[in-house]
Specification:
Chain B: It is found in: Endoplasmic reticulum membrane. Chain B: InterPro entries: ER_ret_rcpt. Chain B: Belongs to the ERD2 family. Chain B: One of its GO terms (molecular function) is ER retention sequence binding. The complex is a heterodimer of chains A (about 10) and B (about 220). Chain A contains no helices and no strands. Chain A is rod-shaped and about 25 Å long. With about 10 residues, chain A is low in regular secondary structure. With about 220 residues, chain B is mostly helical. Helix content of chain B is about 70%, strand content about 0%. Chain B is built from nine helices and no strands. In chain B, helix 1 packs antiparallel against helix 7, helix 2 packs antiparallel against helix 3 and helix 4 crosses helix 5. The longest helix of chain B is centred in the C-terminal third of the chain and has 27 residues. In chain B, about 40% of the residues are buried. Classes of the chains: A little secondary structure (about 10), B mainly alpha (about 220). At the A-B interface, loops of A face helix 1 and helix 3 of B.
Chain lengths: ~10, ~220
């Protein structure tokens, strides 16, 4: 499945 | 990175600097809720589990360390610093914040982006941050007059998530598969909780009067 987008926010 | 998110991060940083200034300059934490500070410590520890595994940028890592370090330092000061802890008034800081921790964790178990350890703790930290200010707002209502630094601390803390909402709107329109509905909904709730504080802060600023929250 689609990997969760990297959490780039603080 | 966009200007809204950068403004949000800087506003958040300023709120922390104002709080540190107040505690170190006045050696007093009167008007500050230890429970809100503890909740923020939990928020950052639960959210930045990827601190040592995912490297996004130097900025991202440094800011995470600053947020974790400052929140733990404030909690340590209010609990153990021999001068500061004397000014902590346990009798007005009575919000049962453990219910917030339990409720948010339960919600995160059911509502998350993916059922994994990291994602559940991330959703938990987002929900907990939305309500973490409640003990502080309740304390301010109880203690009546609010000193300037404490008022500015809460003002900047509330404003930062407002900038993040603009950031999510911006990213929604500029990035194709951007979807952060957990952050957005929680961010809206979080910012809404400050609405009455913002109103009374504006009134006190307009009338050049001392900030007073109605009990």
């Amino acid at each position: 499945g689609q990997t969760a987008p990297v959490k780039d926010e603080l | 990175m966009n200007i809204f998110r950068f403004a949000g991060d800087m506003t958040h940083l300023i709120s922390i600097l104002v709080l540190l200034l107040k505690v170190y300059a006045t050696k007093s934490c009167s008007g500050i809720s230890l429970k809100t500070q503890e909740l923020y410590g939990i928020v950052f520890l639960a959210r930045y589990l990827d601190l040592f595994t995912d490297f996004i940028s130097v900025y991202n890592t440094v800011m995470k360390l600053v947020f974790i370090g400052s929140s733990l330092a404030i909690v340590w000061c209010m609990r153990f610093h021999r001068v500061v802890k004397r000014s902590y008034d346990r009798d007005v800081d009575t919000f049962r914040h453990y219910f917030l921790v339990g409720g948010c964790f339960l919600l995160a178990l059911f509502v998350h982006e993916k059922f994994s350890f990291r994602e559940v703790f991330w959703a938990f930290s987002i929900y907990l941050e939305a309500v973490a200010i409640l003990p502080q707002l309740i304390l301010l209502q109880r203690s009546g007059n609010v000193d300037n630094l404490t008022g500015q601390y809460v003002l900047f803390l509330g404003a930062y998530r407002g900038f993040y909402i603009l950031n999510w709107i911006y990213r929604y329109f500029t990035e194709d598969q951007f979807s952060r509905w957990i952050s957005c909904v929680s961010g809206l709730v979080q910012t809404a909780l400050y609405a009455d504080f913002f109103y009374y802060y504006f009134i006190s600023w307009k009338n050049n009067a001392k900030l007073k929250l109605p009990a």
